[in-house]
C-alpha cells in the first residue's frame, strides 16, 4: 500500500495564513493569505482534485495589506475574514475585516487556470471588524457550525464578539471582555469551542490558556503556565467536549482536560523548535497534526485520549487471506500513542497546518517561504481506523 | 666332570674321586650339595658326558672328527677305567643300603609287641566304668521321693510369704505414706495389684484391696498436690510424675497440667516483655530508671533530677522512636527470660513424658507421641506470641544509625532459638525465627534505601542552596536589567569556582554514604553471626537484597530523580537552577563512566555474591545513567537557551522597529547575550571538556565574516530594490538552503562544552529569527539588526563547533529583516564594523 506522494504548490510570496474552506464539504479547498510588504497581497484559493492529484488555483487580491490570519465562514463559502497589517505613515497596525470572494472565481479558475493570476479580481470588502481603541487584532474566530452570523476577534487584551448583519455587511459589537493584568497582555491565539452550544472560548496569552463563557463574557478557567514559553495555538477536540490541545515555544504539544487543569493529560515533545499550529482531525480525533518552525509537520496518533480509544472492532471474515496474518498482528497489539509520520517537505518554518473540511484524510501545511504541501494520512492507518 | 678334562688329567687321589662319585649320584637323584650346583652351571653341551643334554651320537662324531687315533685310544681306555670305577661304587652303595633295611625291619617287629600289652589294659578300664554307672543309677532311684517333697514345701513357703506381704500391705503402705516414701509405696502396691485383682472374689483379699485402694488414692492425692505446687525441684517433679503414671494416672491429663503450669510462668515473662513494648516513654527519667539503660549511659543516673537531665536522651546514641530499652537489651531479656525458661520446660517435659524408658502396659498407650504433640502445639503457640512481640519491637527500630546493635540483637535472638531446635528437632520455631530475622534484614535494607535516598535529596538541597547563595559579586560583575529571569545564571556565574568542588563533594559524600551503608549491611553476613550461613543470607540477601534492592535501586533512584528535574522544571519556569542541572548531568556521566561499576564491584566483593537470580547488569545501569546525563544536559541547554531566547524575544517584540532612530551602537541586550553566553561557557567549562570544533575555526574567521557579509549579503538583498523581481530573494535563500544542512534546533548535545554552547546559541538565534519575521522594520530598524547581528557574529563564533552555523543563522536573520523592511537600505559594512568595534 504505497502512499500517495505529497502535492506541493508554491506561492510567489511568503505566507503564514492558511485555512480550509469550512463551508465547503464537497471539494477539497484551502485558502492561503500571503504576506508581502511591497506587493499587493493575495488570497490563493486552492482546489485539490483528489482523483488526479491536480491543484487548481485562483487568486483574489487583498490590497489592504499583508495577511496575518485568515478564517473562512462556516456558512457561506465565499465569505472569509482576514487579519492584516496596515502600514500607514510608518505605523503598523493589525486590522480585521470580513470579505467576499468575487463571484466568478470558481468559473474563472476552471476556464483558464493559466490566466488566473494574470488578472486577479479584488476581494469585496463587506465590513471592518476594527476598533482602533482595542488595538491590534490577533485573530478572528467564526462561530463553529453556525449560520455565520457571529465572530469573535482577539485584539491585544480584548475579546470582542461581533454580530454580522445584512449579509455580513454590517458588524456590530455585541459584547466584549477585557483581560486585565500587569504588563502588556496580548492574546496570541484563540479557539471557539464547538461544544456546549458554542458558548465557550479558549484563548492563549503568553504561557497561559484561559477559558471564557460567552454568555457572561467572563473567564471560567485559567491554565497558568500551560507551556514553559509562549502558547502559540489551541484546538478543541471535536468529539470530546472537555479536551483541548495546545502547542507553544517549549516545543511541546499538550493535551488538557479543562476539568482538571493542574496537569496536562498528555504531553508530546517531538518537534525540535517552536510548535506553531496544532489541529485535531475533524472526524477522527486521534489524529493530531502539528506544524513547527523546525520545518516539520508531524502527524500523531493519540489513541489513548481520543474518543475511540481502542479503535473499531474488526470483522475477521471481511479480510482477505493475504491481509489476515497482518491483521492478527494488529489485533494483538492495540494501537499505541505514536507518531504516524513526519513530513519534511518544507524548508522553512511551518506556521500553519489545516485539515481539509471535505476529506478527513487530507491536510495542508504552509511554510513561510510560500510552499503549500498537501498530504494524506497513510493508507495503512486509514484502513486501520476505518475497518 | 669334563670328558676331555677327565681324559687329560691324571687319575685323582682317592677322596677326591669318591666325592665326585657322590656328587654324581646326588645329581642323579636330584639332590644338591649345598651351593655346589650354583657355581657349576649345567652345561648345555651335548658333548659333556656328565651333562644332562649329552648326546652320544654327537659326542662320538665330535671325537671322531677331532681326535687322532691315538687320542681316541686314550679316550677309550680312560672311559673304560671310569666305567669300571662307577660299577664298583654302585656295588658299595647297594651293600650299605641293604644293611640299613635289615635294622629297620627289626625295629618294627619290636613295636608290634609293645602295642599288644596296652590293649589289654584298656579293656580292664572299660569294665570298671560300667560298674560305677550301675551304682550311681541305683542311688538316685532311692532319693527321688524325698526330693519331690522338698520342692513342694518350698513352694508353699513362698506362697505364704506372699500372702503375708499382702496382709501386711495396707499397714506398710500407711507407713510409707507417713514417711513420704512414695516410691516404695507405689512399687509395693504395683507388685500386689494384679494378685489382688485376681483374687478379689474372696472377701478377705477384697478387704485388702479396698484398703490399699483407699491408701493409694490418698497417696495419689498427695502426689498431685505436690505436682500442682510446682515449687518442687525438677527431680522431685519428675519422680512425682513417674509415680503418678505408674498409678495409672492418665498421662494426657498430666501433660496438660504440666504445660498449663509452665504456661503461667512463661506468660508472665511474655507479659513483662509486652509491657516493655507498650510502655510509652514518659521521659528521660523513666529511661534512666531502667537499670539496664543506665548502664549504657552511665552519665544519666547521676544527673537524674538535675535540670540538665533533659539532655540525657540525646546522649543516647540510638534515638529510637521510644527511647526505652534498646533492642539488644530487649532481645536479651526475651532470651534470658522467655527462651531459657521455655527451653527448661521443654527439657523437663521431655524428660518426664517422652524420653522415659517405657515399661509394661504404659508403653502401649503411646504416651510419647501424644505428649510430643502437645508439647509442639504448646511451644508453637507461645513462640508465636513471643515472635509477635519481637517483631513489633524490631519494627520500631527505624533509626538507621547503628546497625550493629540490631544485628547483634538478631544474632542473639537467632542463636538462642537454636537451643530450642536442638531440644525439639521437629519444631517450626527456629525456622520461624529465621524468617523473622530475614524479614528484619529485608526491612533494614528498605530503610537503608530510604535513608540513602533522603540523604541524596538532602545533599541536592544543600547543593542547591550553595548555588543559590548570593555571593557578593567580585570585580564589578554586571547585574543587568531583567535579572529576575536570569536568577539562575547569575549565582552560577559568581559561584562558578565552587562548581567542581560542589560536584566532588557531592559525589564523594554519596559514595561515602553508600560505603557506610554497605558496611552496616555487611554486618548481617559477618562470619560470627549465626544466621549468616543460612541460605537466604548467603544468596538472596546478597544478590536480591543488597545488590538489587539497595545499590541498584539507589542508582536507579539517582537517575530517576535527575530525570524528574528535567520534566518538572519546564512547567514551573525553571525552578531548578541551571547550574544544578549541569552538575547533575556531570554526576550522572561520572556514574556512567566509573562510579557505577566501582560501587557494584565493591558490593560484589563485599558480599561474595553468587548470583543465582538474574541481576541487573552494570551496562544497563550505565546506559540508564548516561541517558539521564544526556537528558539533563539537553535540558540544561534548553533552559539556558530559553533564558537567552526570552531576552531576545522581549527585545524584538517590545521595540517599534519602524520608527527607530539610526543605530549608533549595539543594543544592550546583545551585549547581555554575549555576556551570558560567556558566563555559560565558563560554567560549562568547569565541568565538561572542550570538545571538537571544525578545523577551519581560527582567528581569521572574523575577517571571513566581514568579507562575507559585505559581499554576499549585499548581493542577497540587492534585488529587493528592484520591484520587478520579487522572486529572486526567495530563490536565492532557497538555493542557499538547499546546500546547507537542515538545522535541528533543540537537538541532543554531546558531552562537551562546544556542543553545549552550540546548542544554546542555536536556540537563541533561531528565536531571534522567528521574532524578526513577525515584525515590520523601517530603514533604521534593519540597520540596527545588521549591527546587532554583526556584533553577535564577532563574539559568538568562538563558542560553537561550526561557525558556519552562526553565519547561516545570522545571515537568515538579516535576510528576514530585510524582507520585512519597508525601506530596505542596508548600512555600509564599514560603518557596522566601526559601531561594533566601539562596542
From TrEMBL, chain A:
<dbReference type="InterPro" id="IPR036322">
    <property type="entry name" value="WD40_repeat_dom_sf"/>
</dbReference>
<dbReference type="Pfam" id="PF00400">
    <property type="entry name" value="WD40"/>
</dbReference>
<feature type="repeat" description="WD">
    <location>
        <begin position="224"/>
        <end position="260"/>
    </location>
</feature>
<dbReference type="InterPro" id="IPR059104">
    <property type="entry name" value="Beta-prop_EIPR1-like"/>
</dbReference>
<keyword id="KW-0677">Repeat</keyword>
<dbReference type="InterPro" id="IPR019775">
    <property type="entry name" value="WD40_repeat_CS"/>
</dbReference>
<feature type="domain" description="EIPR1-like beta-propeller">
    <location>
        <begin position="7"/>
        <end position="299"/>
    </location>
</feature>
<dbReference type="InterPro" id="IPR001680">
    <property type="entry name" value="WD40_rpt"/>
</dbReference>
<dbReference type="Pfam" id="PF23609">
    <property type="entry name" value="Beta-prop_EIPR1"/>
</dbReference>
<protein>
    <submittedName>
        <fullName>EARP complex and GARP complex interacting protein 1</fullName>
    </submittedName>
</protein>
<dbReference type="InterPro" id="IPR040323">
    <property type="entry name" value="EIPR1"/>
</dbReference>
<dbReference type="InterPro" id="IPR015943">
    <property type="entry name" value="WD40/YVTN_repeat-like_dom_sf"/>
</dbReference>
<dbReference type="GO" id="GO:0016567">
    <property type="term" value="P:protein ubiquitination"/>
</dbReference>
<dbReference type="GO" id="GO:0051049">
    <property type="term" value="P:regulation of transport"/>
</dbReference>
<comment type="similarity">
    <text>Belongs to the WD repeat EIPR1 family.</text>
</comment>
<keyword id="KW-0853">WD repeat</keyword>
<dbReference type="GO" id="GO:0060341">
    <property type="term" value="P:regulation of cellular localization"/>
</dbReference>
Amino acid at each position: 500500500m504505497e502512499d500517495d506522494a505529497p502535492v506541493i504548490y508554491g506561492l510567489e510570496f511568503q505566507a503564514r495564513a492558511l485555512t480550509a474552506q469550512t463551508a465547503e464539504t464537497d471539494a477539497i479547498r484551502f485558502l492561503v493569505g500571503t504576506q508581502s510588504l511591497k506587493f499587493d497581497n493575495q488570497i490563493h484559493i486552492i482546489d485539490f482534485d483528489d482523483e488526479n492529484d491536480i491543484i487548481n488555483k485562483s487568486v483574489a487580491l487583498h490590497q489592504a495589506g499583508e495577511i496575518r490570519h485568515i478564517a473562512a465562514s462556516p456558512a457561506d463559502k465565499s465569505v472569509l475574514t482576514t487579519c492584516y497589517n496596515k502600514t500607514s505613515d510608518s505605523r503598523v497596525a493589525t486590522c480585521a475585516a470580513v470579505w467576499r470572494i468575487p463571484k466568478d472565481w470558481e468559473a474563472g479558475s476552471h476556464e483558464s487556470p493559466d490566466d488566473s493570476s494574470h488578472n486577479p479580481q479584488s476581494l469585496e470588502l463587506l465590513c471592518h471588524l476594527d476598533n482602533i481603541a482595542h488595538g491590534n487584532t490577533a485573530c478572528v474566530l467564526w462561530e463553529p457550525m453556525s449560520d455565520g452570523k457571529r465572530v469573535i476577534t482577539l485584539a491585544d487584551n480584548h475579546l470582542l464578539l461581533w454580530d454580522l448583519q445584512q449579509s455580513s455587511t454590517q458588524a456590530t459589537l455585541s459584547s466584549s471582555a477585557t483581560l486585565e493584568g500587569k504588563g502588556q497582555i496580548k492574546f496570541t491565539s484563540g479557539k471557539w469551542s464547538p461544544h456546549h452550544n458554542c458558548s465557550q472560548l479558549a484563548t492563549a496569552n503568553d504561557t497561559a490558556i484561559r477559558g471564557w463563557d460567552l454568555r457572561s463574557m467572563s473567564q471560567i478557567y485559567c491554565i497558568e503556565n500551560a507551556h514553559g514559553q509562549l502558547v502559540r495555538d489551541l484546538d478543541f477536540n471535536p468529539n470530546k467536549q472537555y479536551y483541548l490541545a495546545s502547542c507553544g515555544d517549549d516545543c511541546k504539544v499538550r493535551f488538557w482536560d479543562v476539568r482538571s487543569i493542574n496537569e496536562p493529560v498528555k504531553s508530546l515533545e517531538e518537534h525540535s523548535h517552536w510548535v506553531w499550529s496544532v489541529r485535531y482531525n475533524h472526524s477522527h480525533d486521534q489524529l493530531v497534526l502539528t506544524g513547527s518552525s523546525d520545518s516539520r509537520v508531524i502527524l500523531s496518533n493519540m489513541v489513548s485520549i481520543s474518543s475511540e480509544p481502542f479503535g473499531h472492532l474488526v470483522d475477521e471474515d471481511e479480510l482477505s487471506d493475504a491481509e489476515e496474518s497482518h491483521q492478527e498482528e494488529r489485533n494483538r497489539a492495540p494501537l499505541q500513542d505514536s507518531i504516524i509520520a513526519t513530513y519534511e517537505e518544507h524548508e522553512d518554518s511551518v506556521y500553519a497546518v489545516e485539515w481539509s473540511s471535505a476529506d478527513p484524510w487530507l491536510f495542508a501545511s504552509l511554510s513561510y517561504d510560500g510552499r503549500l504541501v498537501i498530504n494524506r494520512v497513510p493508507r495503512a492507518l486509514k484502513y486501520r481506523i476505518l475497518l | 666332570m669334563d670328558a676331555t678334562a677327565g681324559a687329560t688329567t691324571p687319575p685323582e687321589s682317592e677322596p677326591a674321586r669318591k666325592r665326585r662319585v657322590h656328587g654324581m649320584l646326588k645329581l642323579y637323584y636330584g639332590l644338591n650339595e649345598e651351593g655346589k650346583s650354583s657355581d657349576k652351571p649345567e652345561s648345555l653341551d651335548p658333548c659333556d658326558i656328565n651333562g644332562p643334554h649329552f648326546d652320544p651320537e654327537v659326542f662320538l662324531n665330535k671325537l671322531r672328527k677331532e681326535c687322532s687315533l691315538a687320542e681316541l685310544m686314550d679316550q677309550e681306555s680312560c672311559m673304560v677305567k671310569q666305567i669300571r670305577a662307577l660299577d664298583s661304587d654302585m656295588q658299595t652303595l647297594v651293600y650299605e643300603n641293604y644293611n640299613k633295611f635289615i635294622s629297620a625291619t627289626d625295629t618294627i617287629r619290636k613295636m608290634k609287641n609293645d602295642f599288644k600289652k596296652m590293649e589289654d589294659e584298656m579293656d580292664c578300664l572299660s569294665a570298671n566304668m560300667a560298674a560305677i554307672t550301675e551304682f550311681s543309677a541305683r542311688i538316685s532311684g532311692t532319693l527321688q521321693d524325698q526330693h519331690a517333697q522338698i520342692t513342694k514345701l518350698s513352694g508353699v513357703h513362698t506362697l505364704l510369704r506372699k500372702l503375708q506381704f499382702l496382709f501386711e500391705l495396707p499397714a506398710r503402705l500407711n507407713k510409707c505414706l507417713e514417711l513420704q516414701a512414695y516410691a516404695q509405696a507405689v512399687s509395693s502396691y504395683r507388685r500386689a495389684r494384679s494378685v489382688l485383682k485376681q483374687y478379689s472374689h474372696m472377701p478377705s483379699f477384697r478387704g485388702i484391696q479396698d484398703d490399699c485402694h483407699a491408701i493409694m488414692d490418698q497417696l495419689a492425692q498427695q502426689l498431685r498436690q505436690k505436682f500442682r505446687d510446682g515449687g518442687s525441684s525438677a527431680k522431685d517433679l519428675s519422680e512425682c510424675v513417674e509415680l503418678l503414671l505408674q498409678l495409672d494416672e492418665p498421662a494426657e491429663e498430666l501433660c496438660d497440667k504440666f504445660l498449663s503450669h509452665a504456661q503461667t510462668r512463661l506468660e508472665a515473662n511474655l507479659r513483662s516483655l509486652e509491657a516493655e513494648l507498650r510502655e510509652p516513654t514518659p521521659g528521660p527519667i523513666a529511661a534512666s530508671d531502667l537499670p539496664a539503660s543506665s548502664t549504657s549511659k552511665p552519665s544519666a543516673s547521676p544527673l537524674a533530677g538535675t535540670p540538665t537531665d533533659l539532655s540525657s536522651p540525646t546522649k543516647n546514641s540510638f534515638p529510637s522512636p521510644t527511647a526505652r530499652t534498646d533492642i539488644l537489651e530487649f532481645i536479651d531479656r526475651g532470651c534470658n527470660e522467655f527462651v531459657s525458661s521455655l527451653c527448661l520446660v521443654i527439657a523437663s517435659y521431655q524428660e518426664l513424658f517422652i524420653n522415659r524408658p517405657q515399661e509394661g502396659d504404659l508403653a502401649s498407650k503411646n504416651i510419647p507421641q501424644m505428649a510430643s504433640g502437645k508439647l509442639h502445639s504448646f511451644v508453637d503457640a507461645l513462640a508465636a506470641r513471643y515472635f509477635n512481640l519481637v517483631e513489633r519491637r524490631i519494627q520500631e527500630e527505624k533509626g538507621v544509625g547503628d546497625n550493629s546493635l540490631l544485628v547483634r540483637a538478631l544474632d542473639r535472638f537467632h542463636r538462642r532459638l537454636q537451643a530450642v531446635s536442638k531440644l525439639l528437632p521437629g519444631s517450626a520455631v527456629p525456622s520461624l525465627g529465621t524468617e523473622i530475622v530475614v524479614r528484619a534484614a529485608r526491612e533494614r535494607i528498605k530503610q537503608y534505601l530510604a535513608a540513602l535516598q533522603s540523604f541524596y535529596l538532602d545533599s541536592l538541597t544543600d547543593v542547591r542552596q550553595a548555588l543559590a547563595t548570593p555571593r557578593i559579586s567580585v570585580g564589578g560583575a554586571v547585574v543587568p536589567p531583567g535579572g529576575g529571569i536570569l536568577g539562575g545564571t547569575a549565582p552560577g556565574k559568581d559561584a562558578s569556582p565552587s562548581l567542581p568542588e560542589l560536584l566532588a563533594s557531592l559525589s564523594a559524600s554519596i559514595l561515602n554514604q553508600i560505603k557506610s551503608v554497605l558496611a552496616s549491611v555487611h554486618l548481617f553476613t559477618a562470619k560470627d553471626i549465626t544466621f549468616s550461613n543460612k541460605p537466604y543470607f548467603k544468596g538472596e540477601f546478597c544478590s536480591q537484597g543488597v545488590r538489587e534492592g539497595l545499590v541498584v535501586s539507589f542508582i536507579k533512584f539517582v537517575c530517576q530523580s535527575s530525570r524528574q528535574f528535567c520534566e518538572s522544571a519546564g512547567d514551573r519556569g525553571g525552578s531548578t537552577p541551571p547550574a544544578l542541572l549541569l552538575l547533575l548531568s556531570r554526576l550522572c556521566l561520572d556514574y556512567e563512566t566509573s562510579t557505577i561499576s566501582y560501587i557494584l564491584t565493591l558490593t560484589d566483593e563485599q558480599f561474595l555474591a553468587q548470583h543465582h537470580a538474574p541481576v541487573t547488569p552494570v551496562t544497563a545501569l550505565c546506559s540508564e545513567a548516561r541517558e539521564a546525563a544526556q537528558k539533563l544536559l539537553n535540558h540544561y541547554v534548553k533552559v539556558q537557551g530559553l533564558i537567552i531566547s526570552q531576552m531576545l524575544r522581549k527585545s524584538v517584540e517590545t521595540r517599534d522597529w519602524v520608527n527607530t532612530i539610526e543605530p549608533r551602537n549595539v543594543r544592550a541586550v546583545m551585549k547581555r547575550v554575549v555576556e551570558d553566553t560567556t558566563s555559560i561557557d565558563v560554567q560549562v567549562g568547569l565541568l565538561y571538556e572542550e570538545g571538537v570544533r571544525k578545523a577551519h575555526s581560527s582567528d581569521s574567521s572574523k575577517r571571513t565574516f566581514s568579507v562575507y557579509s559585505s559581499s554576499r549579503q549585499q548581493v542577497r538583498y540587492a534585488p529587493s530594490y528592484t520591484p520587478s523581481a520579487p522572486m529572486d530573494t526567495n530563490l536565492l535563500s532557497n538555493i542557499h538552503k538547499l546546500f546547507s544542512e537542515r538545522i535541528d534546533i533543540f537537538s541532543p548535545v554531546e558531552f562537551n562544552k562546544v556542543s553545549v554552547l552550540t546548542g544554546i546559541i542555536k536556540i537563541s538565534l533561531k528565536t531571534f529569527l522567528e521574532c524578526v519575521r513577525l515584525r515590520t522594520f523601517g530603514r533604521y530598524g534593519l540597520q540596527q539588526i545588521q549591527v546587532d547581528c554583526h556584533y553577535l557574529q564577532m563574539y559568538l563564533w568562538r563558542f560553537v563547533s561550526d561557525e558556519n552555523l552562526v553565519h547561516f543563522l545570522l545571515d537568515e536573520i538579516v535576510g528576514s529583516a530585510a524582507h520585512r523592511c519597508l525601506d530596505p537600505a542596508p548600512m555600509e559594512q564599514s560603518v557596522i564594523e566601526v559601531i561594533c568595534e566601539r562596542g
